[in-house]
Every structure is written in C-alpha cells, then in structure tokens.
Design brief:
Number of strands: 15
Radius of gyration: 22 Å
Mean pLDDT: 92
Order of helices and strands: EHEEHHEEEHEEEEHEHEHHEEEHHHH
Shape: elongated
Strand order of the largest sheet: 7-8-9-10-6-2-1-12
CATH topology of the largest domain: BirA Bifunctional Protein, domain 2
Number of helices: 12
Structural class: alpha+beta
CATH class of the largest domain: Alpha Beta
Distance between the termini: 47 Å
CATH architecture of the largest domain: 2-Layer Sandwich
Number of domains: 2
Helix content: 25-40%
Length: 325
Amino acid sequence: MIIINRPQRNPYFNLAAEEYLVKNTKEPLFMLWQNTQSVVIGKHQNALKEINLHYLKENNIPVIRRISGGGTVFHDLGNLNYSFIDFGARERLVNFKKYSQPILDVLQSLKVNAEMVGKSDLKIDGLKFSGNASHVYKNTVLHHGTLLFSSELKNLDSSIKASELCFSDKAVKSNRSKVTNIQSHLKEPLSLEEFKQKIIDFVMTSFSNIVIRDFTKTEIEEIQQLADEKYKSWEWNFGYSPPYQYNGFIDYQDKPLAFRLNIKNGEIKAADFGSNPNENIHRLKSVLVGSLHQTNALEKLYDSNIEAFEILNIDKSTFLKAFFG
C-alpha cells in the first residue's frame, strides 16, 4: 500500500486529487488530508438546498461538490479527512465497515468509545464525528471520511443551516446529526498532528509493503488543471444539482407575491407568478426563463431590466433575497 503525503490545504485541489487518483492509480492508497474552511456536498445533492448561502458568501467559504454520494460536510483545519483507494470485484467494492474500522481501532486504543452507527456514521456516545462516502470507478473504489477533531462547530452549524422550505426535488438529503469533536473525548491531551501520526502508524503496521511518497510534479500539474477546469466551476458545484423547483415570494404592492421556478442544470426553465395581470410581472416571467439560478446572473438580469423593477418598486437586494431564500 502507498501512503501519499498530502500537505495541500486548498479544497479545490484536494477534491480534484480524489478524482484524479481514483482514475489513475494502479496500487492501493491511503491518505490523510485537510482543507481550509469549505463546505463539501455530495454528488447527487442540491447545493442551494444544503447550505446557508448568505453566511458562506459573507465569510468567503466555498462550496465544492465531490464525486462520491452522501451528505454535506464542513471542513476546516480542525477536521482531518482520510481516504482509501482500493481494487476488487465491483459488487464487493463498497464496504463502509472495512475502511472505517482502522479509524475505530485507533480511537479504541485511545480509550475513546467510538462505533459505527447505521450505514456510514461514526459516533462517540451518540454524537457524530465522522461521515463516510464511497465512489466506484470501474474496479476501483474511493472510500473517504471526515474526522472532526477540533473543528469550529459553530461555523459548521452556521454553514449548513439552510432553509429547505423553498425547494422541492428528489436530490439526496443530508441526515443532520448532533456532532462532536474527537478531542473532547480523549483521556489524555493530543494534538491533531499527533492523532494523525497515530493513524499513520496503525496503517503502517496493519498493511503490507508500505511506501510513503509525495505527489509528483506531473500529478500536481494534472490535479491542478482538473481543479481549475471542474472543481472551481459553478457548473459542477451548483449547476450539476438534480432538477428542482424553487418556491418563493417577493414583496409587491405591500403583499407577498408568490412565484415558482423550475430549474434544470442550474437554468430556469419555467417561471410562474400565478394569475397576476400586471404586464411588468409577465415581463419578469419572460426574462427569467433561460437565466441561471445564480447570483451573478440574476444581478445582471436585474440591471438589464431595471425599469420594470423600478415600476414594480422592487430593489435589487429584495429581488436577490427572494430568489435565494
């Protein structure tokens, strides 16, 4: 087994690295890695439904879609991620217990009462500290999970506290659980780096033919290209969301005017404002169709139709708030 050193902290690079490795490695891999503050959503989730968009924008926290399924997770430098890449018969590749067990064994050795609960959650005394997910590519599996060690849990809660009342879809929904940091349950003080080393030591004694290496220059260049072209793109992180319906209202003539948007691949395919007879409302409906459900796109739409909005007495901030919950 190869252990790859992952000193990179850039979340776009690190998520791209997972895809690059699962498609290009020929040997089993193990890795531990960290990201700066970011929200990582599952492949089949509706990004806007899962996040507190306003909080993330105010705090410059990026949202990035990964290639595996499962729910939304928060990363910061108090969170340690682990990854296994392995090979086998396709029908037996996904095995949450197998790849989570080394983590549980390390924690048990530290006298921490950690266990797997349900399909993919790792918990301590009923509190979640790890979510896990898998992705299968041909005969290769990527299994990865988070390890909340000393994360800022208030930031975690604020980042993924989203209103789901505005959305209707068939996207995968996150299973929200009460969370905890591993550090709070240790009998003896331990730094994240020391905890990380204990996991590496365990892996080195549990698997054979261990080789430790860094990314090559070529790997770094190709991963960075993938990060730039895919993982930094709005089309992947938001536009890839499954089709959804967005229901909202906007203040019009001192009353809430309800509307409904049908969105596919991030594009507004239909807009319905009910039976309101105002021609400017109908104009709004016509210009919305074909626009992206994206802040920048709707800002441009507002600016290019400002006369209609002024007649309707709708300012830009009110308009944008109505279309993003």
